[in-house]
Design goal:
Length: about 525
């Protein structure tokens, strides 16, 4: 390993301290770590603080003090230790703080905050350097780089243009520099033959900073190496937007950013409906319980995010959802017909079990599709489809509760959706849904309470009650009186619709009386809370 020296000159000091830094045989500075300049600044700040503190008042020397003052002098006469090649040896820097020149005759010491901290950096063979590049950074940092014109001209269009008009220039003042540390590192990369190898251990964020400086210098070889590195290295999710926004505009030479951008976008036209339809079809056809359950949850979550982030996403997969729903309904109807055939109940369990499992699978698929449609506010048409399944309702009564009860979960979810305002079917559709499916739901209610862990009684009962209360008053009365008959027979095994019953009661018997009295009636919600 060759070496060069970093020289630091501080205001108010007369001694220059040399710090060895390792360099490869090619002449590349082997210290691109972000801690290099930071450690230098910390050491300088510490020294400035020690210099700014006033010296203690002089005291009359004693015999003991004279002996103590001679002791360090004897130690300094020992052999000089060889300097280490370690980068910015903090211990040696700390030991050098004792070599500070005495204050000026005026007795004034400059404030530490006003001192300009200077750093000198050399590349390649320091003796053959023919150009100085001076950078001014934040916090009073000034960096002077000893470089070679031929290296900078060969690698940087900026320096090539600058030096072509002033070939005899021996110093270039770059003025204020936003990122001094990365600027020095990027110039050091001009002395490196294998730049990509030097980038291997760098973070994505640091490489993006190098690209920014390399662009300003017209350092095309560096930009290319950085882009190749970004194309190969994985990004974490938080880095993706930063990478894309930082490199999208780059068009340099014969290479571009398309290989990197292909990671996040495709040139091949792809219809979202086709992809979503394929994914939904794969999930619906899966017979593996765990994989199907986890993917249903994941796809549902992702589609929710699409609905929130993309305003036009409502129509992306509505047709796909309805086609898939129709396929599940057709399959469910065939299974119900098969299970309702005479003599089916007498068949061995191994013959009936596949049909029962398939009914449960289709019911679960329908429930998942309804959940997606409810979240996307496109379930109105499905409510009409479900309300018109008179044959399925008739077959429903012929099947054992253990085989059919999961189908009533679909009915319950529709009532919840209407009660929440997620679905807005017409009055006739709501009325038909209650007339056709409320009684089958009541018949299966006890099974749903005890066999379905995800079944929330309070939510379902509130949804049923709110759906009933959207109908005309006379329709509310007919449905609630039928419910009352069932509730008085089976009690807790029936949905508890007492809150809806109270609202209907006040609408029927109290509101007309109050209107006759000319008083403003209380709202149903206020009355139900009293």
């Amino acid at each position: 390993m060759a070496d060069f020296r970093v020289r630091r000159v501080e205001a108010g000091q007369t001694k220059i301290r040399n710090v060895p830094i390792a360099v490869t045989p090619e002449g590349f500075w082997c210290c691109p770590s972000p801690m290099v300049l930071q450690k230098t600044l910390k050491s300088q700040t510490y020294q400035n603080k020690s210099k700014s503190s006033p010296p203690p008042p002089p005291q009359a020397p004693t015999k003991a003090s004279v002996q103590k003052t001679h002791a360090p002098a004897e130690k300094k006469q020992g052999p000089v230790q060889p300097r280490s090649k370690a980068i910015f040896d903090q211990k040696r820097l700390a030991s050098d703080t004792s070599t500070v020149s005495p204050p000026a005759a005026s007795g004034r010491t400059p404030a530490a905050g006003n001192l300009q901290r200077k750093i000198s950096v050399g590349f390649g063979q320091p003796d053959s350097s023919d150009l100085k590049v001076v950078l001014s950074g934040k916090e009073g940092i000034a960096v002077r780089m000893s470089v070679h014109k031929n290296v900078l001209v060969a690698n940087s269009t900026f320096f090539a243009d600058r030096l072509s008009t002033q070939s005899h220039m021996s110093s270039v003042d770059m003025g204020e520099c936003e990122d001094v540390e990365i600027y020095v590192e990027t110039v050091g990369l001009m002395y490196c033959k294998e730049m990509r190898q030097r980038l291997v251990k760098q973070s994505v964020q640091r490489v993006l900073r190098i690209i920014k400086v390399a662009e300003s210098l017209g350092f095309h070889a560096c930009i290319k190496s950085c882009l190749e590195y970004l194309e190969a290295i994985p990004w974490v999710e938080e880095e993706e937007e930063n990478v894309v926004s930082s490199i999208r505009h780059i068009r340099c030479g014969n290479f571009g950013v398309s290989p990197i951008l292909k990671r996040v976008s495709s040139d091949i036209p792809n219809t979202p409906n086709d992809t979503i339809s394929h994914i939904i079809g794969l999930v619906l056809k899966s017979n593996e319980e765990r994989g199907r359950r986890e993917m249903k949850s994941l796809v549902l979550k992702l589609l929710k995010e699409n609905s929130i982030l993309i305003n036009s996403s409502i129509d992306i997969c509505s047709k796909t959802l309805y086609n898939s729903s129709q396929g599940c309904l057709d399959s469910l109807l065939l299974l119900f017909r098969q299970a309702a055939e005479p003599g089916y109940a007498d068949k061995p369990l191994e013959n009936k079990d596949p049909v029962i499992r398939q009914i449960a699978l289709e019911a679960d698929n329908l429930l998942w599709l309804v959940e997606i449609m409810a979240n996307r506010r496109v379930a109105d048409e499905f409510v009409m489809m479900w309300a018109g399944l008179g044959e399925l309702v008739a077959l429903h009564q012929k099947l054992p509760i253990a085989s059919r009860h999961l189908v009533s979960c679909v009915t319950a979810r529709l009532f919840v959706g209407i009660g929440r305002g997620e679905m807005l079917p017409s009055k006739d559709t709501r009325q038909l849904l209650l007339q056709v499916w409320l009684q089958p739901l009541i018949d299966d209610y006890n099974w749903l309470l005890h066999s379905c862990r995800s079944f929330d009684r309070n939510v379902v009962e509130e949804g049923i009650g709110r759906t009933i209360l959207t109908l005309p008053l006379e329709d509310q009365q007919s449905i609630l009186l039928l419910w009352l008959g069932s509730f008085l027979k089976i009690g807790d095994s029936c949905p508890n619709l007492q809150r809806a019953f109270e609202v209907w009661w006040r609408r029927t018997f109290i509101r007309p009386y109050m209107e006759q009295q000319g008083n403003a009636p209380l709202s149903d919600e206020t009355r139900s809370s009293t």
